[in-house]
Amino acid sequence: MPNTDTITIAAGHGLAVPLEAGRSLRVVNTHGTQVVDTWAFVATDSTELLSMAHCREVLQRITFEPGDRLITNRYRPILTFTADTSPGRHDTLIAACSREMYLHAGRSGNHRNCADNLVEALKPHGIMVGLIPSPWNLFMLAPVVDGRSIEYQRPRCRPGDYVEMRAEMDCLMVFSACPDDVYPTNGGNGTPVDAHVELLEDLDE
Amino acid sequence: MPNTDTITIAAGHGLAVPLEAGRSLRVVNTHGTQVVDTWAFVATDSTELLSMAHCREVLQRITFEPGDRLITNRYRPILTFTADTSPGRHDTLIAACSREMYLHAGRSGNHRNCADNLVEALKPHGIMVGLIPSPWNLFMLAPVVDGRSIEYQRPRCRPGDYVEMRAEMDCLMVFSACPDDVYPTNGGNGTPVDAHVELLEDLDE
Fold it and tell me: Quick one: average pLDDT of A113-125?
């Protein structure tokens, strides 16, 4: 796997990855247990971004599937979800973990968290977010059972399972290898691990 | 119903209502067919607000029920959902309608919409929002069926059905009598109607 196009998302940390329109990348769940919070901002205007609530509305589904065109808060396609070797059902319902979430759960206020990871990853790109947008929680299993309840489940990914997506416009993607050790969704052993992003060859070049 | 504590949310329009900690209000679906998009901002800091994604996380449910304490994006209780005479299941999953939504649906760019209603209602209070926060869509039926698909359903409310909520901190509430004539959730006859807010007596006074 180590080649020049493979980028490590360090355990518990975030990472911004610019992705040109037409280019694809793969998010690899290297060890099979890691949730990766994912955001995508339009390169030229960060107030337009991948929106879970707008995708749910238009797709009429709470989860996304290969073939889906994912849209922004202005109804423009920003990503196409192109492939998935994992058991899927990547959560779209739950907020990014934050300092306040860990405090609420009785943890330290210094706990690493996806909200701060997003802020830190955007900073070098000159982007400030006010509210933390809802992330696409790759590999996170929080299915809706009985049409009503959310069930936090342990990961069912195999090491190396991945999802692929293609940019439909120039965008800045942000990934956070979620530091959650409160819910069972991240493996539940309190040890976040690395994940990886692979930038895929452009077949047209 | 017309008394000094009853406020009309005009069909297709929005309205801001300050609500002190401990005070309650009732949102009345006067004609039984009207979705009311609802937001609540902390009075002293509008970057803290009722958050659907955080409520879903903590309540482990995609819908809220009487007795639920609804929280902000900082995990503090802002409202208690105290009563509901409607069939419930008020949607938490779908974005507020917006100019772009109506354009995407082939409607006019001048269509009234809940996103602009929010912006307009907040303006006199000196509050600007960047991203439009996900609303609590009172009376909107968009259940998740088969654990995956969202089904847009016609309203099942009776005229006069209401929900009640109590403020847990001083807040500014915003209501929008949704102008949607695209989805069946608003009655599907293309005619948004008025709804009402009743400020309830404070029993302690």
Answer: 98
Identify the band that residue A187 occupies on the pLDDT scale cut at 50, 70 and 90.
confident
Our measurement of the distance from residue B110's CA atom to the centroid of its chain's CA atoms, rounded to an integer in Å, reads: 22
Task: Tell me how far apart the alpha carbons of residues A116 and A152 are, in angstroms, rounded to a whole number.
Answer: 23
Tell me the C-alpha distance between A176 and A162, whole Å: 15
Of A74, A101, A129, the CB nearest to B100: A74
pTM for the structure as a whole: 0.96
A53, B131: Cβ pair inside 8 Å?
no
- Note whether A93 contacts B: Cβ–Cβ < 8 A: yes
ipTM exceeding 0.90, yes/no = yes
The confidence score (pLDDT) of residue B201 equals 82
Residues of A in contact with B182 (CB under 8 A): none
What is the rounded CA–CA span in Å between residue A25 and residue A2?
A: 15
Taking Cα atoms as reference points, which of B129, B134, B153 lies closest to residue B94?
B134
Whether the CB-CB separation of B32 and B157 falls below 8 Å is answered with yes
